[in-house]
Specification:
Shape: globular
Order of helices and strands: HHHHHHEHHEHEEEEHEE
Number of helices: 10
Distance between the termini: 64 Å
Strand content: 15-25%
Radius of gyration: 23 Å
Largest sheet: 6 strands, antiparallel
Number of strands: 8
Length: 336
Amino acid sequence: MQESIRNGLVNKELIVDMKVSKILNNYQLRSGYIFKRIIILSFFFFAFLSGFAQQTTSLFQRSDTLNKKRRNTVFIAEGVGATAAIIGLNQLWYANYPRSGFHFYNDNSSWNQMDKFGHAYSSYFIGKVGMDLLAWSGESKKNQLIYGATLGFAFLTTIEVFDGFSEEWGFSPGDILANALGTSLLIGQELLWNEQRIQYKFSFHTTDFPQYYPEKLGENTLQQIIKDYNGQTYWLSVNLWSFFKESKIPRWLNVAVGYGSEGLPEIHPTPYNYAGKEAYPTFRQFYASIDMDLTKIRTKSAFLKTVFNVVNYLKIPAPTLEITSKGKFIFHPVYF
């Protein structure tokens, strides 16, 4: 009798310990997700400011000559923001996993390379924002490219070094290459054409996958935008008028090609079973669509110009042709 009571108490203690552990783990994971969302929203906030920086209002008008106060403000804000982001990630994310000696990790086969497209996009996006902010301060084009366009690569490489000291991950040369490609797309076009004729864009739609794997693909829409690669699409959007400036092609008209993938529940994609359904196959998706360069829409509204500048990092919903690696052709009247 006493033995049964003891066993019952032990089992209850184990259950309580497991519940407490689960609560703490969920809190740590949510803290990491929240902080990552804060970082992303912060960069969109800077993008909003960079959009204002291109307008003709007194405060936000681009300076024709170097304005040291503005430049110093930009450098200080970027430095403080990057430092806070790195410290926050270290405390709210990496601190939850065992540390290790610096090591490399080859994840090039993971997620059908969707994560690599994401790295390139982030590097391009952050670098473009950095350039626009330095342009607002009146910095030379050379310094915009050196200190602004490389901001994304520098920031993401720092995070990659943190990965290298985490037992959970590792320093990924593939991620570094993807970061470099995103920055190269930005800088290369500025050197070649002094403008962005080919823009790197992003779109997202919700999928059914997270309900079967919420811990990896996200428990809500905000998490899923970051984590559910099944719903992400990365685009190269080409502005036609930029290549034919003497033509009557609308200035805002773009054509876009995109890449996505489906059936990605794990780091190394393998088919998995739905409840009571057959295994879902992993496959790649290739897209062709029309798009808009919103920054080329003429308007006298400074507010609309700012909104267009920020939203232009996203691909607009439009009719789209999808070709899958399984050989299927699918037409979407509207795809995002």
